[in-house]
Amino acid sequence: MKLTCDICVIGNGAIGKTTALALAQAGLDVILLAPASGDQPKAGQLPSDVWDMRVYAINHVAHGLLSSLKVWDAMDVSRIAPIDAMAIHGDGAEHGQLGSLSFDAYGARVGALAWIVEDANLNHALDTALKFATGLKLVQQSATALDVSAAGANLSLGNGDTLTCSLVVGADGANSWVRAQADIGMDYRSYDQRAVVANFACEKPHQGVASQWFMGAEGIVALLPLAGERVSLVWSAPESLAAQLLNESPEALSERLNQLPGLSLGRLTMLPPAAPKAFPLRLIRAHTPVAHRVALVGDAAHVIHPLAGHGMNLGFADIDALLAALAKRDQPADCGDARTLGRYARARKEEVLLMQIATDGLQRLFASELEPVRVLRNLGMGLVNKLPFLKRRLMGHALGRPQSHSTSDLS
């Protein structure tokens, strides 16, 4: 079978689905190439006492995009938790230099700083929206070859079908097949850390506060609010410590968390399945997010340390920028012309680079065990906390910068 479309999106995660849905709702003919995945939990299959261990802190740009696509309201809102405040703790308590930094929605003049959303909840809403989207076809096949010419892009599929389009969007994750086929180089560095994740019921209410502790040699601990009296743990731990955290009992891990300075959640009890998971942490910089008739979005284009919680938000901002670039294209019939892709690449260059530099720099800074560095970084946190102008700038980056374009009339 020979398939044709304007744009082929490759990827079966939330970024790929959102990209395909946004482009289809904008009036383009889209095929989402997404092999079926049996290991992805569905929101409707999760018992009420089981919470997905993969969660995202959704900022205002991502919230705006998902709302415009009618996805936000399709999620189970009872499982979404707003972040009303953030409390960041340094690691100088023993040395009299305990730095701290705090933000709140009231000071930022917004209803919430961000929202914590489970991966299963988001994907369930996206899967439902994809079924009713006009101009969008889901093909559950893998691509085996990509051939690009001046006339268009041609994909060979695993079942023998072929697909022709004017633009291929790679939304296929950190190990992107599209990036490799387009011969886009990348810089790679392992942090020699794993993100250990688990969910807990807490004895006392979290009050919508997301807390983070920079623990020096022990990594970075974040407790994010879930709906109700529950929190989600993301511990960016060195490999040896991560192995310990994964192998010790739920009670022992809870006791570790109870020793965190300033923690006021009372007794913590790990939620089912009461077994933490871990994900490797690395920095990936694609040398460019575009190639001839190819655009990369999400982790296919960039992977950052999770300390700022912005990995997924960068992907949603990619989608926003790609929509804007396509809306301004010179040739309506050609979605993959060089000028359009160049416009997209320029739009994403600064934000992605700054976020990569910031997260990588902070990880290096707080991993240092040198005493002068420890003192300076904790004093610096305390100083920033006392400077309203700088705090507002940091909050602005955390909230995101909504774009002025619409997702309609790109065709």
Q: Would you write up a description of this structure?
A:
- It is built from 11 helices and 22 strands.
- It is an alpha/beta fold and 411 residues long.
- It has one domain (2-399): FAD/NAD(P)-binding domain (3-Layer(bba) Sandwich).
- Strand 2 (7-10), helix 1 and strand 3 form a beta-alpha-beta unit.
- Helix 1 packs parallel to helix 8 (311-327) and helix 8 packs antiparallel against helix 9 (338-367).
- The longest helix is centred in the C-terminal third of the chain and has 30 residues, at 338-367.
- The radius of gyration is 22 Å and the shape is globular.
- The two termini are 25 Å apart.
- 46% of the residues are buried.
Q: How can the largest sheet be summarized?
A: 9 strands, mixed
Secondary-structure-based class equals alpha/beta
Tally of contiguous helical segments: 11
Percent of residues in helical segments? 25-40%
Record field, number of beta strands: 22
Q: Can you tell me the CATH class?
A: Alpha Beta
Name the CATH superfamily classification: FAD/NAD(P)-binding domain
Any idea of the CATH topology?
FAD/NAD(P)-binding domain
Shape: globular
Low-pLDDT ranges = 402-408
Please report which band the strand proportion falls in: under 5%, 5-15%, 15-25%, 25-35%, 35-45% or over 45%: 25-35%
Mean pLDDT: 87
First CA to last CA: what distance? Answer: 25 Å
Q: Any guess at the CATH architecture?
A: 3-Layer(bba) Sandwich
